[in-house]
Amino acid sequence: MTDSNKTKPEVDAPVGPAPDTLQIVDIEVGDGDEAQASSTVNVHYLGVSYDSGEEFDSSWSRGESINFPLRNLIAGWQEGIPGMRVGGRRQLTVPPHLAYGPAGGGHPLSGQALIFVIDLLGVQ
Q1: Residues 119, 17: Cα–Cα separation, whole Å
Q2: Tally of domains in the chain
Q3: Could you tell me which Pfam families the record lists for this protein (predicted)?
């Protein structure tokens, strides 16, 4: 697994209503190993609220990448990361039902559409 030499991304505030389906945009296509649904991924990521544009989480802010088994993550990541290649940067716009569920679901981000920018550093 490699460290990212990319800098922390910035996300412009979206205009209009949040999408009802997962939106996947490759900002940069990688040329390394491809993530599979069964993979454990090493990533740097930024998460912002679609409505406010405010950051709620960032591995860059903590100063280190994170390893996650994809099967343990929100559905939007489980659907949006497979097929991504190491070295790539991808933006996922995740509707509430693929994130933390409807409002009142018990998680502070329940009911919110979320935007993630993910750098894939490695897969296992």
Answers
A1: 26
A2: 1
A3: FKBP_C
Residue at 7 is within a domain:
no
The bridge status of strand 66-69 relative to strand 114-123 is unpaired
Structure tokens at 113: 């559409």
74-81 own/partner pairs: CB under 8 Å, 24+ apart: 74/98, 74/99, 74/100, 75/99, 76/22, 76/114, 76/116, 77/116, 77/118, 78/37, 79/22, 80/22, 80/24, 81/35, 81/39, 81/41, 81/118, 81/120
Report if residue 116 sits inside a domain. yes
Measuring CA to CA, which residue among 41, 29, 30, 21 is closest to residue 93?
21
